[in-house]
Write a structure and sequence with these properties.
- With about 550 residues, the chain is an alpha/beta fold.
- Helix 1 links the parallel strand 1 and strand 2.
- It has 2 domains: about 1-240 and about 355-420, FAD/NAD(P)-binding domain (3-Layer(bba) Sandwich), CATH 3.50.50; about 245-350, Succinate dehydrogenase/fumarate reductase flavoprotein, catalytic domain (Flavocytochrome C3, Chain A, domain 1).
- It is globular.
- The mean pLDDT is about 95.
- The strands form 5 sheets. Strands 1, 2, 5, 6, 7, 8 and 17 form a 7-stranded mixed beta sheet that branches. A 4-stranded antiparallel beta sheet has the order 11-15-14-13, covered by helices on one side.
- The longest helix is centred in the last third of the chain and has 24 residues, at about 465-485.
- It is built from 13 helices and 18 strands.
- The chain starts with a strand and ends in a 25-residue tail after the last helix.
Length: about 550
């Protein structure tokens, strides 16, 4: 099939972009592909909220900009920070007009929360399921837009570039072009070719590279891996944010339940096993220090005590206060026998957010022509070395809008109907010589090995020896997986493993190149910061 605008991913970035394009070009076709259900995205699991300057009597753009720059530890692109903070308020108003409902005070003003690293109350939220509410509003609007075709259960295998036309494509090849994607249709079990004039990657994060993560099972870094294979530019992958307070459940691996930072914003206190409130030992901002500092503090306290978790104390909250803002968290804890009015919540850090990703400019353009990226898969320059809490949903909407603005100009000035390129010359997927997999254990065991080595060697605290070991073991896993890929029929499990090994390699490689400790990258062999902040681009 062919389409004018192709969107890979159905989170807040992809849906916002698709809606804007569809409304501005009612005669054009917009296709959204998602590998699971349309609402199964990282957006859905965003609890805390979205940051925006809504109260100009107490807050200001300058304050939000400064908070973002401080959290980013010298690596934010200040121009991009200003763009996101200043344009973000209009984007928030847009999603409200599309039907998203944020909590309000009795007088009608928005209830604004405060989270780590923020100097003012500026977080809009919908209880403790903000992302889910925003996703709902966008999907409802999508259903009412006739020129959007949303297809579930389609796994994108690769970007189509000149490479598939028989040309040698390298990192130094000028004007690499994206012509669309190859897709495994999980319903028909067939591999299909989708040709597109403009493609947006909104494929989310890569938390599943780690053993424990707040991300859903779909967060396997597919977009980043596909762009790297297509010889596009990837930036700052070493900056993996570990959320300090994921709910600790003994024996549970994979997706952990998130305890939003807003709980600490409302007065929750981190304590160790002796009951000591320990954060004041690490930072004057205590429990509301930026996430990198809090996560390292918890990690250090666990190592000192030899335990697998710390506590978040909310016993001083009334049940009414807690359930008003955090009903989902209250019910989850209660289901495990934890009554927050009497019991402290066991917590431990878990992989949460990738601050690096596909390198883009201020219009969401990647290094590959006709290919845009927005949301967590992109590295825009906003987050620098550490993302400020609740800036991610804001960034996704701002860059979805900017991608729409630039793509609208491109598709208008380019006369594709008279283009000399022969779209029919793009070959079908070549599966010759592949057979059905004989043993799934070859995939599942490699996946376990990768998650284990990333968690143990490339976690919150790193050193050169750990990174070296991780690199060597990933080389072997890559070699084995590529050999399996060459002779085996493609499946989501095999392709996700392949993508995650690629992403893990990129994280390790960027970490090896960074000879300093900055933001989320903490290397005990390089404890000082370099005098001149620098980005690492692969």
């Amino acid at each position: 099939m062919d389409t004018d605008f192709l969107v890979i991913g159905s989170g807040i970035a992809g849906l916002t972009y698709a809606l804007k394009v569809a409304q501005n070009f009612p005669e054009k076709s917009i296709t959204i592909l998602t590998k699971a259900q349309s609402d199964e995205t990282n957006t859905k699991y965003a609890q805390g909220g979205i940051a925006g300057v809504m109260d100009f009597d107490k807050d200001s753009f300058d304050k939000h900009i400064e908070d973002t720059l401080i959290a980013g530890d010298g690596l934010c692109n200040k121009e991009v920070v200003e763009i996101v903070v200043k344009e973000g308020v209009e984007r928030i108003k847009e999603i409200i007009n599309w039907g998203a409902k944020f909590d309000k005070e009795p007088d009608g003003d928005f209830k604004l929360g405060k989270e780590g690293g923020h100097s003012e109350f500026r977080i809009l939220h919908h209880k403790d399921v903000t992302g889910k509410e925003m996703e709902r509003a966008l999907l409802d609007a999508i259903k009412k837009t006739p020129n959007i075709h949303l297809i579930n259960h389609c796994y994108v295998l690769d970007l189509i570039t000149q490479h598939h036309l028989g040309y040698l494509v390298t990192k130094s090849t000028p004007d690499i072009e994206c012509f669309g994607v190859y897709v495994l249709n999980l319903n028909s079990k067939k591999i299909e070719k989708i040709v597109a004039k403009i493609t947006l990657l909104a494929t989310g994060g890569n938390g599943q590279v780690y053993r424990t993560t707040t991300n859903p099972a779909i967060a396997t870094g597919d977009g980043v891996a596909m762009v790297y294979r297509a010889k596009g530019r990837i930036e700052n992958m070493e900056f993996i944010q570990f959320h300090p307070t994921a709910l600790y459940e003994p024996g549970v691996r994979g997706q952990s339940f998130l305890i939003t930072e807003a709980v600490r914003g409302d007065g929750g206190v981190l304590r160790n096993h002796t009951g000591e409130a320990f954060m004041e030992k690490y930072d004057p901002r205590k429990d509301l220090a930026p996430r990198d500092i809090v996560a390292r503090a918890i990690d250090n306290e666990m190592k000192i005590s030899g335990t697998e978790f710390m506590y978040l104390d909310c016993t001083h909250f009334t049940k009414e206060k807690f359930t008003e803002h955090f009903p989902n968290i209250y019910e989850k804890c209660l289901s495990l026998g934890i009554d927050i009015t009497k019991d402290m919540i066991p917590i431990a850090p878990a992989a949460h957010y990738s601050c690096g990703g596909i390198k883009t400019d201020e219009w969401a353009r990647t290094s590959i022509n006709n290919l845009y990226a927005a949301g967590e898969c992109a590295c825009t320059g906003l987050h620098g070395a550490n993302r400020l809490a609740s800036n991610s949903l804001l960034e996704a909407m701002v860059f979805a809008h900017r991608a729409y603005t630039d793509a609208s100009k491109k598709i208008t000035i380019t006369d594709y109907s008279n283009a000399t390129f022969d779209w029919s010359s793009i070959p079908d997927w070549n599966a010759a010589g592949t057979n059905a997999p004989k043993e799934m254990i070859l995939i599942t065991q490699s996946l376990k090995e990768m998650k284990l080595l990333m968690s143990d060697y490339v976690g919150i605290v790193r050193n050169n020896e750990r990174l070296h070991r991780a690199h060597k073991r990933l080389d072997l896993l890559h070699e084995e997986t590529e050999a399996l890929y060459e002779k085996t029929e493609v499946s989501p499990q095999l392709c996700e493993l392949r993508n995650m090994i690629t992403v893990a390699y990129l994280i390790v490689k960027c970490a090896e190149f960074r000879h300093e400790s900055r933001g989320l990258h903490y290397n005990t062999d390089f404890l000082n910061k370099n005098s001149k902040p620098h980005n690492i681009v692969l």
